[in-house]
Amino acid sequence: MSPGTAAPARGVRPVEISGQGLTVRVRGRTAPILDDVGFTAPAGCVTGLIGPNGSGKSTLLHTLAGSTSPQPGVVRLDGRPFGELPRRERARTVAVMEQNSDSDTDLAVADVVALGRLPHRGRMAPAGPQDAAACARALDLVGLTGTEQRRWRTLSGGERQRVQAARALAQEPAVLLLDEPTNHLDVQHQHELLSLLATTGLTVVVVLHDLALAARYCDRLVVLHEGRTHAAGRTHEVLTADTLRTVFGVRADVSRHADTLRVEVLGSVGD
User: Fold this and answer.
1) Could you identify which of 24, 75, 143, 221 might form a hypothetical disulfide with 238, taking C-beta atoms 3.0 to 4.6 angstroms apart as the criterion?
2) Which range, 121-125, 141-145, 260-264, is most confident?
3) Sorted alphabetically, which InterPro entries does this protein's record hold (predicted)?
4) What is the CATH number of the domain that holds 203?
């Protein structure tokens, strides 16, 4: 997997995705999972969602995707309320890569990637040359050309993550939403996948646990803490020693070398 610059597909225009007053509650829990969260991912930027476990990162991602409904709150896509857009337009515009995938399916890699093309075809319409080209391009971008006939069950966890990334890219969306896409990937493929995402030119929102990866590949960060937005802005403005101490409970050295932000966790606050 040696991705180069991955320009958006022809005709794809990255758009801003945002949320206002996003509140999500679940039965049996007193405090909301998301509490009046505001969020903006500018068009064409990589926006990272970081925060401790249970802070609401995945819930926010699912809310942006439309699979979780805020009460109250509104998600906007290019300034338009997401829920008011036609279903086909939403499916074409926003692609989601989940943290986990079904391990029981017996589809071939080519079939999994082709699922990303469904929003572009009419009901029961067969795949055409444009669909095949989009799938081939996506597999090439993630370094899996030649694996089309391999069965899903035979893939490693890391290979499955890369196939899921190819499926999302084959959709040719304007917005990519990814929930911990570096799970199961070795260090090399973590960097290669995030480097690829950073060069797509699309609007990317990605949940990350690794602060060093967030510092290196994200243009902007949103830090969630106990269901609320603790900080949001450009990465070097948000990822500070004070934020890491307050939100994550760790002592850290944050330094900037040329255009690179480096984060070194030194230990917990109590050490």
Assistant:
1) 221
2) 141-145
3) AAA+_ATPase (IPR003593), ABC_transporter-like_ATP-bd (IPR003439), P-loop_NTPase (IPR027417)
4) 3.40.50.300
Does residue 206 contact residue 46 with C-beta atoms inside 8 Å? Answer: yes
Asked whether residue 3 is assigned to any structural domain, the reply reads no
191-222 pLDDT, tens digit per residue, is: 999 999 999 999 999 999 999 999 999 999 99
Strands 175-179, 203-207: parallel, antiparallel or unpaired by DSSP? parallel
138: left (phi over 0), alpha (psi -120 to 50) or beta: alpha
Which structural domain range is residue 46 located in? Answer: 17-239
Structural domain contains residue 1: no
Give the pair of three-digit tokens for residue 142: 């993630």
Tokens in use for 1? 């997997």
Give the helix/strand (H/E) hosting 60: helix 57-65
Instruction: Please check whether residue 257 lies inside any domain of the structure.
Output: no
Position 64 confidence tier, pLDDT thresholds 50, 70, 90: very high
Region of 131 on the Ramachandran plot (φ > 0 left; ψ -120 to 50 alpha; else beta): alpha
Q: Is the pLDDT of residue 104 over 90?
A: no
Q: Say if CB 74 and CB 19 are below 8 A apart.
A: yes
Give me 121's structure tokens: 């075809």
Q: Is residue 249 one of the residues assigned to a domain?
A: no
